[in-house]
Queue: 4 jobs
Job 1
Amino acid sequence: MNLFILRHALASNPGEEGLPKDLPDADRPLSHEGKMKLVRAAEAMRELGLKFDAVLSSPLLRARQTAQCVAKELKLKQKPVPTAHLAPDGSPKLLIEQLIETGVNSKNILLVGHEPYLSQFISLLISGSTTTAIELKKGGLAKLEVRHLGYARCASLAWLLTPKQLRQFRT
C-alpha cells in the first residue's frame, strides 16, 4: 500500500478576505492564493499519474476543501471522506485502524490534514517515534511505501515534495 500525505493548502485567517474576525479555526477556508496554488499542484499530481483508491481528510474546512479540489482535478470516482482521526488532535492509533479497514482493497490512499500531526504521523510510521524532524509545508506531498500497516516502523519514505517542487511537474 502507498500512503500519500498532503498538508492542506494556504488558508485564510480570521478577518481576511471578508471573513469575520471571530471565525472559529475549524471554519477557516482556503485563501484565494491557496486555491490557485492547489489547482496547479493537483494538475501536477495528474501529470505524475497519481491515482487514489481512497481519500481521507481532516474534518476542518481547509483540509476538506483541499481534498475535494484534488479529487475533482484527478476526476476520482469516490468522494473524500472526512475523519476526526486526521484532525489536529486526532489519534494516530485510530487512524491506522481506519486505514487498515479502508485499505483492504486500496493500493493508493491520500490523507489530507494538518501540521504538526502529519509530520508526527509520518515519523511514527517510518521510525517508530514521533520526533523525527520532517517538515511538510502547506500543500506539500509525501509518499510512504507501507509493507504491512501497523502502529510503528512499517513504512519507508519514498519522497517528500515541497509545493514548489510539486508544481514544477506541470506541463
Note: Strands lie at 2-7, 54-57, 81-82, 108-113, 141-146, 155-161.
Job 2
Amino acid sequence: MARDLTQNLFVAGHRGMVGSAILRKLRDLGYQNLITRNRQELDLLNPVSVQNFFSENEISVVYLAAAKVGGIHANDTYPAEFIYQNLMIQTNVIHSAHVSGIENLLFLGSSCIYPRMADQPIQECSLLTGQVEPTNAAYAIAKIAGIKMCEAYNRQYEHDYRSVMPTNLYGPGDNYHPENSHVIPGLLNRFHTAARDKTDEVSVWGSGRAKREFLHVDDLASACIHVMEIDKKKWAKSRDPGCSHINIGYGSDVSIAELARLVAKTVGFEGKIVFDTTKPDGTPRKLLDNTAIHQLGWQASHSLEAGLQETYRAYQQLQVEEPRM
C-alpha cells in the first residue's frame, strides 16, 4: 500500500504502549489525519458504539492495537477477562471496518499464539500445531481467533487485513503494575524500588532458565507501518492465505537470569538476585523466526541494553509525575 499522508488513519488503543508508539511513528512520518478515541469516548466492547463510530468517520486504514494485556500472573488469574475482552474488541473493530467498506487493517497479535513446545526459532507455520502455554491460553486463543478472522474476511470479501505477531515487548508507555505487568517493566519496578530502599535482595519469578526474545516497542511501530506500506501484490505473494500472519522479533533471546542481571545493572541495584522456583517459568523458550519480515525489508534497530536504558529513563520520569505508583 503506497504511502498517502492524507488518508484518515484510526489507531485503536492509542494510549497503550503499542498504540502510542504507532501514533508517534505515524506523526514522525508526516501522516496528517490521525483519528483516536479514549475509552470514555469509544467503548470498543460495545458493538453498537463501534459501528456508529465507523459510520460517522471516513476511515481508510485501521491499526488495531487495542487489547487487554498482562504478564503471567494477570493472564493466569483473570482468564475470563482476557478472552472475553480481547475477542469483543477485535470482533467489533474488524467487523465494523468491513461493514464500513474499509479495505486496509492491521491486527496486532502476540507470539504467545504458538505452541508451548514449538521448534525454535518459531516459524509462522507452527501456529495450531500444538498446545499453547496454559498460563496465557485465554489470551492466545483470542489472538488466534483475530488472525483467523482477518483471514476469513480477506478470503470472503477480498479485503487486505494483515496480522503481525510481535515477540515480547518493552519500552516507554509500559504497565509497571507490581503484579500484572510483563517481565521487563515488572523487573524494572522491583529493582528500582530495591535500589532506592537499599534492599539486600530481589526475588524473581521462576528458575531464571526460561529464555525470551525482547523487542523495543518503537521497533514494532516501525515494523507495523512498514508492513502496511508494502504493495498488496507483494504482500500476498509473500504470505500463505491460510497462514497470513508475520513474525516481528529482535532476532536473538536471553535467559530470564541474564535479563534480571541486565536490569539490575541498568537501575544500579547491587544486591542479591534470588529465583523463586515455586513460581512458573511459562514457556521454556520463545524465539521467533524473522526470516519473512527481513525478506520484506525490515529489521530491528534497538539493542536490548540501549533499549533498557531508554525505558528506565521513561520509567524514572513516570515516578516523578506519579510518585505514589
Note: Residues 177 and 186 are 7 Å apart (CA to CA).
Job 3
Amino acid sequence: MALLTILEYPDPRLSRVAEPVVAFDEALRQLVRDMGETMYAAPGVGLAATQVDVHRRVLVMDLSEEKNALRVFVNPQIEWAADELVSCEEGCLSVPGIYDQVRRPARVRVRAQDEHGAAFVLECSDTLAVCIQHEIDHLNGKVFVQHLSMLKQARVVAKLRKRRVRR
C-alpha cells in the first residue's frame, strides 16, 4: 500500500470531473486500499479519488469511532435528496484547517457499486448524508468552499496562500 499525495485547494486539478469506472480489477482495488490508507493517515473521514489526482468516480469513507469500517463507493450517484436542508460544519483534507457551515439536504439515497462491481443502494442521513454529498461534490469537480459566499472563498484562498508561504 502507498500513501497518496492529497491535492490542496485551489489546485485546478480539483475542478476536474471524474470519469466513471468501467474496470473492476486489481488496480481499482489497490487504488481503494491506497485511498483508505491515505485517508486514515491524514486523518480524515472521507476521500475522493479526485483529491489524489485520480479522476475516476471512486470514494472511500469511514465514520466509525474505531476507524475500522471502510466504506467504498464506486460510480456513486445521488438518486434522491430530501427537501429539508441541514447546516453542518464541514472541513476537507484538500482545504486543511478550514471549517465552515454548509447547507445540504438532510437525507439522500445513493446508488453505487463496491470495488468488485456489486451494485447497492444506501439511504443516508445525518453525518453520512453530509459526507457522501461532500465527497460526490469532489467527483463532480467541486470543493466545499464553493458552497460559501465569494467573500468567504476569497478569504479561504488568502489564508491558504499565507500558510503555504510560511512553510
Note: The longest strand covers residues 71-81.
Job 4
Amino acid sequence: MASVVNTYARAFAEAVLSGHHDPDKTLREAQAVAELVGRSKELREVWETPSITPEQKRAVLDAIVAREGISKIVRNFVAVLIDHRRMKFLGPIVKQFETELDQRLGFAEAEIVSAHELNQNDRELLESQMQKVTGKKVRARYSSNESILGGAIVKVGSTIYDGSVAGQLERIRQAISS
C-alpha cells in the first residue's frame, strides 16, 4: 500500500507544481474530496464497486466537482484514481500529497502544545523562532494542555523541543537525583 500511496502522491505533487497550480488551494480541495468520501459510505461504494462503469463513476465525480467548485486538476486526479481502482487509497494519498508538498516547498509541520491558548502575536513569534531553528517555514497546529503549567512543547517531525515549565521541573528533578 505504501508504494501505491507514495507513487500517486508524488505524481500529483509533480503535476500541481509543474503546472503552476496553487498548492494550498489544490490541497484544500483534495482534502475536501477525501473528507466527503470518508463521510459517505454510499459514495465509497459507488467508486469502489467494480460493476459500476468508470464512465458512471466519473459522472458522479463531475456532479460533485460542479457542486463544490473543485478545480480541474483535482477532478482529473480523482478520475485517475477511479480509472485505476485506487479510490480506497484516496485518504492516505491526500495525506502523503500534503507531506510531498511540504517537502518540496520547504515547510515543516509543527505540533505546538501550550498551557493556554496563544494569541496571534505569540504564535507568530513562536513560529519565527521555529523557522530559525529548523531552517524551514513552519506550518503549525496548536493545542493546549494545562498540565504543562506554562511555556510550550513543540514537535517538528521526530524532534521535540520542550520549553514547558513541567519539562524544566522534570530536568531539575533528574539533575538533583543524579
Note: Residues 2-18 form the longest helix (17 residues).
